[in-house]
Amino acid sequence: MKLAFPTELNRINFTEHLLFLKDCGVESIPLYFMNYGDKMELAPAVPGEQLDMMLAALVAHIIEIRSVGMSVEVLYPDFRTNIVDVVHSGEQGAEWLKKVFSTCSELGIKDIGAFPKNPKKDEIEDLDKWDAEQIDGYQKVCALADEYGLRICMHFNMSWQSRFDTVEAIDSYFERVDCDNFGILFCFGCVALVGLDVPEMLMHWKDRLFIVHLRDVEGDWSKGNSEKQFGTGSIDLKGSVAALKKIGYKGILHPEHFPIFGSEAPSGERVLFDHAWDRGPLTTAWSLGFWKGMLCD
Question: How many domains would you assign to the chain?
Fold first, then answer.
């Protein structure tokens, strides 16, 4: 297992950022790529020249990451809910994905993290039709990814009353898509907030476990919940680490969503971790140190 922490290609102090994370014990950097925000429907239509420039920047950043002694094994292209829409958009979408997947393969990236569409159940007029379209899309994406030796890792949010709010709903998708490179981006928080036991579910999905996101939480989706500092929430973190070791998980462990630890300067006043959504250096270092200790225990 490798302690991981993500970054983006548009960091102003990219090198300093990497060195700080390395000093905190980070071994691998998952990269966020192609951040379109709320305009993801435009993603398949990115002009070829623009996509080439973005991929060239990706290559340069990965070379730099590896030059300081850290790996890059996971890419989070900002498909958000539209990865199926990309492959369904026709020849242009397929060519767009081929270029991204080909570059990932050449760079030695093995996992693509993505988010499935996960509407509320009462928002789907024809569930059978909706499922058929989604499953067909996942099969096409996985077939294309398999050509380049990549795995598609789906973040099944499991939010309350959504299409994927039960273990059975997710298991049925694995069965129906029926692709060996179709797996789960396992989020501790999403699993715990629907009342499931995290160590138990790590064992349940051990054969589909491609990426792991670390959180600690309290409460549940239906009655209210909150993010907690690691070790203070309701998740059995020691038991979860023991389960990961038992199943021989070799992928990344990516801490996320942790609350501020102590007093933090506003993001606009920082040199590092200066994005509005960032936790500051103190919080980040403490959280990474917590997990470094957990993995060495």
Answer: 1
β strands within 130-272, DSSP E: 151-154, 182-187, 209-214, 217-220, 224-227, 252-255
- The crossing angle, in degrees rounded to 10, of helices 48-67 and 91-107 is 20
d(CA 178, CA 15): 41
pLDDT tens per residue, range 138-167: 999 999 999 999 999 999 888 888 888 899
The two tokens of residue 205 are 């999905």
The pair of structure tokens assigned to 274 is 């200066």
Residue 29 near residue 7, CB atoms below 8 Å: yes
Q: How far apart are CA 27 and CA 84, in angstroms?
A: 31
Beta bridge partners, 226, equal 218
The domain in which residue 230 lies consists of: 2-296
Instruction: Write out pLDDT tens, residues 9-23.
Output: 888 899 999 999 999
Number of H helices, E strands in the chain: 10, 11
Token pair, residue 223, equals 């009655």
Check if the beta carbon of residue 83 is closer than 8 Å to that of residue 41: no
User: CA torsion angle for 62, 66, 72, 75 (degrees, to 10)?
Assistant: -10
CA distance 157 to 163: 10
CA distance 237 to 239: 5
CATH number at residue 215: 3.20.20.150
Q: What is the Cα 269 distance to its own chain's centre?
A: 28
What DSSP designation does 235 have? S
Structure tokens at 88: 């369904």
DSSP 203: H
Note whether 99 and 93 are within 8 A (CB): no
